Amino acid sequence: MNGITSTWKWRSPSGRDPGSPSSQPNLADRVLEGRSIKDPVAFLDSSYGRIAPPEGLAGAVEAGERLARAIEEGSRIVIHGDYDFDGIAASAILQRSLRLMAPSSSIEVVLPNRYEDGYGLSVNGLKRIRAEGADLVIAVDCGITAIDAIRAAAEDGLEVMVLDHHRFVRDEQGEIVLPPASVVVHPGLPVTGVEQVGTDHLCGAAVAFKVVWATARSHFRTERVPSVMKQELVEATILAGLGTIADVMPLVEENRALAALALRGLPGSKIPGLRALLLESGHGPDDGPVHEEVIQFQLAPRINALGRFGSPMPAVELLTSVDSGPEGVRASMALAREITSINLQRRTAERAIVEEAITRAEAEGQTADDHPVIVLADPGWKRGLVGPACAKLVDRFARPVILFEACPDGIARGSARSVPGYSIHAGLEAASEFLQSYGGHAAAAGCSVELERLDQLRAALVRHASLEIASEDLTSVIEIDCRAVMSEIDEVRDIEVVRGLAPFGPGHPRPTVLIETVRPIESKWVGADQGTLQLRFAGEGARTVKAVWFGAGRHRAAVEKALKGGPLDVVATPDLNRWQGRVEPNLMIQDLRASE
Predict the structure, then answer these.
(1) Given 3.10.20.30, 2.60.40.1180, 1.10.472.80, 2.40.50.140, which CATH number is that of 7-35+481-594?
(2) Are the CB atoms for 516 and 553 separated by under 8 Å?
(3) What SS3 state is found at 592?
């Protein structure tokens, strides 16, 4: 099946047509059936009982025991996190909990500056921390590949623990090479004799949550920790769930429960900075439940903007705030507003990069069928912003994209994003002779190259991608869960039933339905550039359903032809539109075509 912009296929694991609405009257049940979810009750369970204890995570119990001893000994502890939302949330979880257990101890957070320090642990950074008197460093959301830095720290008398979830270093035989840390906690490591349910996809904040849970049990020498500690673990659950959503982890099994618990608990969080950030994200007390989109598109980008522009430390201050009094709330709101201002700068700069990159990619022929990868560099593109810009170009052109900041020292430093089915990490590995450094995974990576070798790198990546990506795959693919009819999505309660399958994300995306042979009763182009299509369809009786397609203006001629040709087949996500106190069904169109 083909629409105007995409290839359509059924999401069902078998790839087969799941049948008409008459075969299963309930739309939500049809979605679950199309995804081959055999036990919907268990899948939808998002209670605390779904969270596996620390024993299911390799190294967590050992780390908890070690931290409990460090607290008892009065060790000076430094938490070394990462500069994205997940790393900042993980750092906040550790600092908040450890300070509660050891209020008189020195427990500080250090986050690298992307432009001055680069990513992760470094030899010089750890030397500096040691010189300032630290006894123990907890590397969280980083450290698993910092083998040389941790070895040098150990020789300097500095203990380092690693709490991470990123890819391991492997030797020539493919065996895992771990850093020489005192304890390594990682969801990818096996645990003998304990069932690991869902723990292989934990984010950094979730790993930190499991460790402070184990630390509390060891410190208080009981499973039944004091109520104040229990409340802090609830807050840690919220931060871990938000990190899970922000770090785009698969929302299945344990992760699904963490995300759902975070969304339910966020409005009533005892962390004033979190509540302030939620308000600044545009979600007030009267706006109903918090959905994952608020985290993905509003809250998390605000925190991430700090690290993309400079120091992420204000985010730590916001997430570790404990003063819930009037002064503390005012301070948190002021800081949240400052962070929002920085995020607006980030959005403006990122939008400029995207527009420039689109223009250049098309002008240079990098969107042609014989050029299955886009590689561009520019001195005006900040390396902290090119990753999200890459993602937008991948959505636009359905091919891997690497964008670089061309730095004054002659090195281009940047990020890569890929398409399903193609490992950009494998592509970089194949072209490694032209690279200074690279790292990451199949979907996303970071790398650096000498500017004078950029053309060679591009050519090598084009050769590799040409062998791995068929030309027909350079078109976006929309996966459809099932068919639907307007009469089952024309009331708010209908959409709320489908929303009951949330939270949505990787592994459990928002439902997409195919609505066949429908005629709009109204159509218009709106927006400053007239690039958004608005349609309205007849529902049951006098009810109607509004539908919106953002970005349709790029395909206006084809859309207009389909609209004039008669009935349409529409692929869309059922949603709710909230505006000035009104709530109504709303279809988010992904593609359409003239009915066959």
Answers:
(1) 2.40.50.140
(2) no
(3) strand
The number of C-alpha atoms within 13 Å of 205 and in the hemisphere containing its C-beta is 32
Interatomic CA distance for residues 434 and 453, integer angstroms: 6
Mean pLDDT of the 24-41 span: 87
Specify the CATH architecture of the domain 48-344.
Answer: Alpha-Beta Complex (3.90)
**String of b and e for 410-425 (b: at least 16 CB within 10 Å)?**
eebbbbbbbbeebbbb
What pLDDT does residue 534 have?
Answer: 97
Instruction: Specify the pLDDT at position 341.
Output: 96
Q: What is the pLDDT, as a whole number, of residue 197? A: 57
CB neighbour burial string for 127-159, b if at least 16 within 10 angstroms, e if fewer: eebbeeebbbbbbbbbbbbbbebbebbbeeebb
The strand pair at 520-526 and 532-538 is best described as antiparallel
> How does residue 15 score in pLDDT terms, banded at 50, 70 and 90?
confident
Asked if residue 116 has pLDDT above 60, the reply is yes
CATH 3.90.1640.30 in the chain is located at 48-344
Q: Indicate where the chain has its CATH 2.40.50.140 domain(s).
A: 7-35+481-594
Q: Model pTM greater than 0.85?
A: yes
The mean predicted confidence, pLDDT, of the chain is 93
Its CATH class, for the domain covering 364-473, is alpha beta
Please state, in angstroms and rounded to a whole number, the distance separating the CA atoms of residues 143 and 165: 9
- Residue 200 is predicted with a pLDDT of 76
Cross-strand partners of 140: 163
